[in-house]
Amino acid sequence: MLAGLTMNDRHYGHLARDGHEQAIKLLDTFTNVKLADVHAVHVGRMSRTGLAANVDNEKVRLSRRQAEAP
């Protein structure tokens, strides 16, 4: 992540003179959400649709292997 910030600072640093300081401030506030101007969002597990698709795909793979077996 630091490499990306460094590259962006090299290419676009002239657009935001305080870009480095702002990036440090954003990273520092990220570690303490209470200080940030945003609210934390809890992301749950995958939806059942995604899990069902993966389970179905695995069943197809298993049935193909069984069909190829002598």
Description:
The chain has 70 residues and is an all-alpha fold. The protein has one domain (2-68). Helices cover 64% and strands 0% of the residues. It contains three helices and no strands. The longest helix is centred in the C-terminal third of the chain and has 21 residues, at 48-68. The protein is elongated, with a radius of gyration of 23 Å. It starts with a helix and ends with a helix. The mean pLDDT is 64.
Outline of the structure:
This protein has 70 residues and is mainly α.
> Counting H and I runs of at least 4 residues, what is the number of helices?
3
Total beta strands: 0
Q: How much of the sequence is in beta strands?
A: under 5%
Give the low-pLDDT segments.
Answer: none
**What composes the largest sheet?**
none
